[in-house]
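Can you give me the bound-state structure? Components:
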Amino acid sequence: MTGAPGPRWIAGVDIGGTNLVVGLVRSDGGGPVAVRTAPTRPEEGAAAAARRVAAMVRESAAAAGVRFPDDVAGIGAGAPGPMELDSGTVRETPNLGWRNVPLRELLVEAAGVPATLHNDADCAAYGEWRRGAGQGARCLVCLTLGTGIGGGIVLDGRVHQGVSGSAGEVGHTCVEMNGLLCGCGARGCVEAYASGPAIAARALDAGYCPESPQRVTAETVCRAAADGDRKAARVVADTGAILGVAVANLMHVLNPDVIVLAGGVARAGDLLFGPLRREVRRRAFASAEAACRIEPAAFPETAGVVGAAELFRSAQAAPA
Amino acid sequence: MTGAPGPRWIAGVDIGGTNLVVGLVRSDGGGPVAVRTAPTRPEEGAAAAARRVAAMVRESAAAAGVRFPDDVAGIGAGAPGPMELDSGTVRETPNLGWRNVPLRELLVEAAGVPATLHNDADCAAYGEWRRGAGQGARCLVCLTLGTGIGGGIVLDGRVHQGVSGSAGEVGHTCVEMNGLLCGCGARGCVEAYASGPAIAARALDAGYCPESPQRVTAETVCRAAADGDRKAARVVADTGAILGVAVANLMHVLNPDVIVLAGGVARAGDLLFGPLRREVRRRAFASAEAACRIEPAAFPETAGVVGAAELFRSAQAAPA
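Here's the bound-state model for the whole set.
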């Protein structure tokens, strides 16, 4: 790297099953600015989504007063599912319905700037490690709580992707071997209890009944719990305890110094984190528990955007 | 390192709750030779144990026709429990009853050669990675099945010890959050089902009754299962399935290329490994499962001896 000043911005992109999120990330710290969100509409295909991402990046740059492409080094993108990192190809994404799509190439063509592509949960973990709640951690695990439960691991400053790119899938670790059936086909996965839809289903099972007729979601359950609804509060507390079992398991295996919880549910605060920490204290070794901070994400909704941009930066700094 | 020929042997030592195991490990490959086993007698204290280890190392060298100390570079030792790696101090070992013992120093004094000290499960993992069933692995996890269930992780050729030295404690990961009570105080740990004593207890609960009056141990249960006892076979199969849950969890978190099972129970063969692999196939992602070999240890009883010696060698090659 030379000392010459390059573009100071990177566009971070999170390509989710439901939404596209785009924001501009500065090279010198801070969260994303000029964040734009739009439906992914995966059924229109990956090329159409890539074109929409490119338009959102331009829009975001215009809103932030950043010249595009002159002052934007490129696009760091994250997407769900296993992928070929070298070629930037999405192999299989149940949430998007795309198979063997050269997504990075499509982004480069649509936007006319360089791009990188990484797993979205890895992006979130890296974003929290580089700029968020896990700065300076030697070993960080980040859980992303949403429609599914994903996870990413950062070890000694590098994402631990595993030998076939699927490390960090904490959502499918089992906490109850004869427990609830998970979407993956196995029983007792954390996701079967603590994903957004699972929280809503458990609340309905527990007899939670919203005052006005509305669709019950994890968000409405968390809000009702905060407003004092006992049944909802019980479900949120149980969710915390179940996540605590998974977090204690991570402490036993990895003995990390930071575990970050990202995603909407992680904003439930003490109603969730209280029971979670209590369960961890019951299960983890005292020395491992003392050595580990458990934190809500600094960027609950945009850790993936920040991390995707930062992974672009690290790829520029040290090309493979 | 210079090209000058140094001592070609290292003494590997495994200091267990029950036994001391000592063997000589050559620098150019192969398992330990002139292996000696003796009771640990921890109640006599660490200094006495260290003196006995030194005597066993001399005995082992004499039996192998190796000059001591001239042709023995030093002692690589492993012991259970959390330890201060830098100072070689055992902090706390429930199995030995020693607290804050400068065990490495005691070994150096007793034997008059340099020594290193590492966690015993880490030694086993490193031994299997360096010379056993996991040679060449990028990411290896080794479970040691015994009185307790330990574990070690080798990532990119280095032991992942975690931030407070307690990574790899797979035995205390939970597979059934409201399950059997474990010695650690938590419910549903793998160890509560699949440790040696737990296997024996589950066999007795299941009505397994040995023909001749004898103490029921995991070993007698495994032998009876191999001899066709149905109740014993059922217990061994269930043990395999429960270990399979833990192994699938490791695949989800770490996505390793090799998982090694060491210790006596791992020698039960297909009666254990069949149900284990079936459970893994049910739970792990297909790509992660396809990328990972599950193997019995190459050194079921002496992986810790080999790995302790190899960790000594790696410390000599690259002093901290």
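A couple of observations. Chain A is about 40% helix and 20% strand. The two ends of chain A are 15 Å apart (CA to CA).
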